[in-house]
């Protein structure tokens, strides 16, 4: 994994999990809210589209989506 655009990789990873789950940003907001994470539609869209979010946000999204295993390749 050399010369990787890590922001794009992060964006694609979350978008792939959303697509796999059949979930859009509105439902992700509801699921994040259910685990105590408050986010707006604009905030989520901006973070995910830029790919500039913390690992904590990534982990929260994976938890909200019910993802148990994360693969990096």
Could you name the key traits of this structure?
73 residues, mainly alpha, 4 helices, 64% helix
Radius of gyration: 12 Å
Uncertain residue segments: none
Report the sheet-strand fraction.
Answer: under 5%
Specify the overall morphology.
globular
Oligomer: single chain
Total strand segments: 0
Number of domains: 1
Query: From N to C, what is the helix and strand string?
Result: HHHH
**Total count of helical runs of at least 4 residues:** 4
Largest sheet: none
Q: What do the pLDDT scores average to?
A: 92
- The termini sit apart by 8 Å
Estimated helix fraction = 55-70%
- Secondary structure class reads mainly alpha
Task: Provide a descriptive summary of the structure in words.
The chain is mainly alpha-helical and about 70 residues long. It has four helices and no strands. Helix 1 runs parallel beside helix 4 (about 55-65). About 5% of the residues are buried.
What is the element layout, followed by pairings?
Layout: H1 6-21, H2 25-34, H3 41-50, H4 55-65
In short:
With 73 residues, the chain is mainly α.
